[in-house]
């Protein structure tokens, strides 16, 4: 079956792992306490803080310092917790707006995304970062605002990335047959989950990653993904 849509991961796939680890995470950690103090009464921030308290099992009346400490601990251990990811996204929004950093993309990514979208392939993102964080990254790249190229964004509200049912939910949302969707990631367990749901998979071996990825074919960059698509369409 011809590939009609591409679902892509971000970290290690479209964007450097070091950008998230060395730029985004430290920025969020440094700005989190002041952000909570300044914005705690805003409805969306108050909602995510309440969700974080519930997730952590804290009393609803837990102090601001207690919840900030929990959030920083989650950040340090890279917990994939939805309220944390949402609050990080809000902090990064300020950073992008002030020009403190740009969203990093590997050089091959933007040209290939534009070419695939122009060829009629629908593009989607599925990342553990919040949808807002995903949109901000692609909106503030050195290649310009790439968000119009995408037909949809998915985060952990859809489910865990190593859970096959998450990919089934995405297929239902986008209305595509499993074999018509290609999933791109640098994490074998995510690729396994997607394959279990029937998606086609392709592993990215960027930045010296040479895992065998089991039965999943692998490429080094998006130019090789383009070659894979060309071969698939000619069959």
UniProtKB/TrEMBL annotation:
Cofactor note: Binds 1 Mg(2+) ion per subunit.
Keyword Amino-acid biosynthesis among UniProt keywords: yes
Single Gene Ontology BP annotation: L-methionine salvage from methylthioadenosine
Cofactor(s) the record lists: Mg(2+)
Catalytic reaction equation(s): 5-methylsulfanyl-2,3-dioxopentyl phosphate + H2O = 1,2-dihydroxy-5-(methylsulfanyl)pent-1-en-3-one + phosphate
Gene3D superfamilies: 1.10.720.60, HAD superfamily/HAD-like
GO molecular function terms listed in the Swiss-Prot or TrEMBL record: 2,3-diketo-5-methylthiopentyl-1-phosphate enolase activity; 2-hydroxy-3-keto-5-methylthiopentenyl-1-phosphate phosphatase activity; acireductone synthase activity; magnesium ion binding
Keywords tagged on the record: Amino-acid biosynthesis, Hydrolase, Magnesium, Metal-binding, Methionine biosynthesis
Name of the top EC class for this enzyme: hydrolase
Enzyme Commission code: 3.1.3.77
Pathway as given in its UniProt record: Amino-acid biosynthesis; L-methionine biosynthesis via salvage pathway; L-methionine from S-methyl-5-thio-alpha-D-ribose 1-phosphate: step 4/6; Amino-acid biosynthesis; L-methionine biosynthesis via salvage pathway; L-methionine from S-methyl-5-thio-alpha-D-ribose 1-phosphate: step 3/6
Alphabetized PANTHER family for the sequence: ENOLASE-PHOSPHATASE E1
Oligomeric and partner information: Monomer.
Free-text function comment from the UniProt entry: Bifunctional enzyme that catalyzes the enolization of 2,3-diketo-5-methylthiopentyl-1-phosphate (DK-MTP-1-P) into the intermediate 2-hydroxy-3-keto-5-methylthiopentenyl-1-phosphate (HK-MTPenyl-1-P), which is then dephosphorylated to form the acireductone 1,2-dihydroxy-3-keto-5-methylthiopentene (DHK-MTPene).
Family (UniProt): Belongs to the HAD-like hydrolase superfamily. MasA/MtnC family.
Descriptive protein name: Enolase-phosphatase E1
Organism of provenance: Thiocapsa imhoffii
Lineage, top ranks: Bacteria, Pseudomonadati, Pseudomonadota, Gammaproteobacteria, Chromatiales
